[in-house]
Give the backbone structure.
Amino acid sequence: MSKKDLGLLILILVVGAVVAIINPRFLLPINLANTSNLIGLFGILAIGQAFVIITGGIELSVGSVVALLGVLFIDFIATRGMAWPVALPLILILGGMIGLAHGWLITRLKLQPFVVTLCGLLIYRGVARFYTADGTAGFAFGQNFPELEFLTAGRSWGVPNSFIALIVIAIVMWVVLHRSVFGRYLYAIGKNEEAAKYSGIRTGRVVMAAYVICGVLTALSAIYFAMYTRSISPASHGQFYELYAIAAAVLGGFSLRGGEGSLIGVILGTVLLQELQNLVNLLGIPSSLNFAVMGGVILIGVLVDQQWGVFRERRLMLEATRKGAAGAAAE
Amino acid sequence: MWHEHDPEPKVRISEKWEPVFAGDHAQTRAHRLLSGMMNYSDASIGASTIAPFLSLEGVRKTYPGVVALDGFSMEVRPGEVIGLVGENGAGKSTLMKILGGVTTPDTGTITVDGVAHDGLTVEASIGSGIAFVHQELNLFENLDVAANIFFGREPLRAGPLKLVDRARLRALAAPLLKRVGANFSTDTPVSALSLAQQQMVEIAKALSIEARLVILDEPTSSLPLAETDKLLDVIKALKAEGISVIFISHRLHEVERVADRVVVLRDGMLAGTLPKSAINHDQMVKLMIGRMLKEREKAAESARPPGTVALSAKAIRTNAYPDRPVDLGVRHGEILGLAGLVGSGRTELARVLFGIEKSLGGALQLDGKDLVLGSAADAVANGIFLVPEDRKLTGILLDLSIAQNISLPNLPAHARRSLVSVRAEAATAEKQKSNLGIKAPSVATRTGTLSGGNQQKVVLAKWLAMNPKVMILDEPTRGIDIGAKAEIYGLMRALADAGVGVLMISSDMEEVIGVSDRIAVMHEGQISGILDKEQFSQENVLLLAVGKQPK
């Protein structure tokens, strides 16, 4: 765990303690379970986003993909009678294909990630609304999928299974990002794509793979969100989710220029965001201020981090000159 | 406008200076000219009634460890075109920085209009009418010509909104364009202009600040021939208006055509001044080189005869000169030097050989077999490695550690089940670190904190840790101190002796001659000649580099 991550963890604990003191209901099992469920759902999204951001890219279509794939998933199993063990991998493949298409447009046709995924944001939202004719996709009365519901919305030992899923995915993705050859390539490309290319790395493929990973994880979270809300109105479902994911990554120490950030960071970022949401509810702050609180905290966080960096650099430089001067005097 | 019936047809001028390359005759002629030059002194012209606009007296400038300019003096008179020539590193750019006020000399005086200064500031330089037209143009491509000429000094309409008075802007720009003989209008977007036309805009900009001295830094190096003629005409027009010009160029025949006087710099010192009557190609080359070649580096001694052709380019065409096919073969066990002027297409060729850039035609062969490179990864897989020109941008990742940089091209070999083994990585790096003598606290040190020479060794190390067949080095010792230079030469020779084909692109004449086994010279996108060891001379390389035949 880096110093940055540790700082974030301490912030999370301090905020949690303050909220708990003001409103002890924060620590009620039901509240913790609800919050950790949301952490699980948004965390899976944020990890996918992190893989894209590390390459210096961005994925803005996440929210629309959550809506589109959610609608499709419910439609497949509720109205078309597809078995969920078939529908689930199908949705994941669809998510992967969306990611592949984005990656292809970005690396082969040299379009900017922002532009490609912004168009995706509009397209998928439109398609989702068209697919249901702007209606709400949901389950019929009495329709049940016990195993699926247990895996997505159920709990084991009181812990939401979505949260457990996040932990498992986080461990796997931590290994991929921080220990694997592929992860090293991602960082190298994020730091300096040209130099990576000159070292013989097929940068196009690596970047494309990052978008595919993002697409698959987004698809998975789309299923979780669908099973959590159980009914989807495609006009609003998943709106701004890409921004939650990006915000979590930025809070977690990712640089939008790429090449910086850790998996633990993005998870902690998600935790802090959900904690803030919860805080707004518990402290009786008007929920209309929800976004304002989030934006304010992110801004302060980034500012403190940046100023701390400047301060440290200055101190290092001062030390170096002092040492240099001492060395010169000694000679 | 470019008059069809130019009072001084270019053909005749170039014919006049058609160099005589006939052995002894040329020698004696050269000697005569040289002695004439020696007798010539500025005092004889000082008698002329015109006072110099600018004069430099005993200017010296040192940087840590380097004397960039030493005891340099020159004068610029109104309406005079001075050709300034010298090899890379001779001190031309330092001189330009001093004239532009970017840096001040350690000693010496600069006299502008009779007022002596210890050094100029940027404001003083502009204020006294010194204008620069750089090789890289500083124009806004998205704005039109008039907006570029008066950028930051736009005429405004009255009123608090500070709106630009576009009509007046055009009215102001039009006469300037006429003076430089432009055949385009003031509202043409700069992006629609050719390079030479863009240079005219730059010159018009210079005129708009009432420049009295226009310094053109390598203005023709990126121009095709036809465009170059236009630019030389503009210089003549400036001269006719009494504006002085300093024309810096590697293209000596252009200097011959326009200069009234040539100032030659060598190793930061004035190597000589040639009056109009003594300006010719051979004279300039002689003064630029000046001394006999220094002792060749040990690296020159090859331990083995060259083997078969390793990598060859057959009629390869690059983006730099799409209509000029290049043929070149580098053999196992040799160091093939690739010389030529900046912009002659050497780097583009290297990029094609390394698969970074696609060839527009032709074929590559490796050990006699056809080779198709879709990316640098393909080249690396085939044992063709490149040490690129821009170390910090493309050679290494400054934020990664030494070990991470060295293992990057061969990471799968340092991994088990596609998980990176930090231990294997460190072991490889340690080995390379001690082999190459990389000076760093440890292999975990960030490469960004290393000196240029050590960074370059890291670039070399990452390729040496693999099995090179062909090693391409683009300006491998640029910006590297002398000690590290010698080490890098030694490494290159060791590679060649191990049977690797080494292709070394270099603009450093002594390096090319001192290290190579053969020298290929590029001129405007093509190999103008290949010199064998017994033909090596700076003069021959320079002659080929400007497209003439060697002696």
Remarks:
- The radius of gyration of chain A is 22 Å.
